[in-house]
Amino acid sequence: MIVTVDGPAAAGKGTLSQSLAQKYELAYFDTGMVYRAVGVMMLRSGRDLSDVPYAEKLAEELTFAKMMEISSDKEFRSARGGQAASIVSSYPGVRRRLLDMQKKFALKPTFADGRAAQGVIYDGRDTGTVICPTADVKFFITATSEVRARRRFSEFKERGIDTDFETVLRDVEARDERDANRKDAPMKPAEDAYILDTSNLSIDEVFKKAVAIIEGTVK
Ligand code: DC
């Protein structure tokens, strides 16, 4: 079974995807990681984030193993890493070079420990539209920017990252703006996606709704 979970930043895609992966024993691919990896490598290199040819070169050379290694960098999940990821993800040449790696995962999905899996939960804003348009079930998870910023702010606080709510809100809005206007991959639900607005739902309620949809769709 292949399930895609698309939607804007901090809408709850990761939480839902991981719970679904656990329930159905499927591999999990957080596709934002490919852009975070390129973004962090740009930051490490000290080059300007506007250096498109260099970002393309890094994308071309990225492997799954390298991405996993870079994911332990302290900037990987930081606001700065997220900004860098968002910027490099707006370069069509970077996206193109990262397509294959994401698409191929569905052909031979594996768990983090290398065991083969029977399917995959793809998490990322274009997974239902671009990465896997033939997925069995597609979700588009959304919430107001205020709610999403509040969730991200709590996450940062839990991880000891020093920031304030206004900064996080501005960051969420700036990312929405950039992501919505991307010409090659504007953020929009696939025509056959189930749209879940999580603004007034608990994590458990979102999970239960998604499970009900999957079980009503995949026999
Ligand atoms: O989901 P995330 O915050 O880890 O994503 C980081 C950035 O990567 C985000 O601003 C946009 C980009 N991204 C993308 O363009 N396409 C995806 N499928 C996933 C993430």
Q: What is the level-2 CATH architecture name?
A: 3-Layer(aba) Sandwich
Biggest sheet details: 5 strands, parallel
Helix percent reads 40-55%
Question: Helix/strand-derived class?
Answer: alpha/beta
Strand order of the largest sheet: 2-3-1-4-5
Total strand segments: 5
What is the subunit arrangement here? single chain
Bound molecules: 2'-deoxycytidine-5'-monophosphate
CATH superfamily: P-loop containing nucleotide triphosphate hydrolases
Give the CATH level 1 class.
Alpha Beta
Q: What is the percentage of strand-forming residues?
A: 5-15%
The overall average pLDDT, rounded, is 93
Report the radius of gyration as a whole number of Å. Answer: 17 Å
Q: Helical element count?
A: 10
What is the third-level CATH name, the topology?
Rossmann fold
Task: Provide an overview of this structure.
The protein is built from 10 helices and 5 strands. It has helices spanning 13-24, 32-45, 52-61, 64-70, 79-88, 92-105, 127-131, 145-158, 165-180, 203-217; strands spanning 2-6, 27-30, 120-123, 137-142, 194-197. The protein has a 5-stranded parallel β-sheet. Bound molecules: 2'-deoxycytidine-5'-monophosphate. Residues 9, 31-32, 35-36, 82, 85-86, 89, 124-127, 175, 179 line the site of 2'-deoxycytidine-5'-monophosphate.
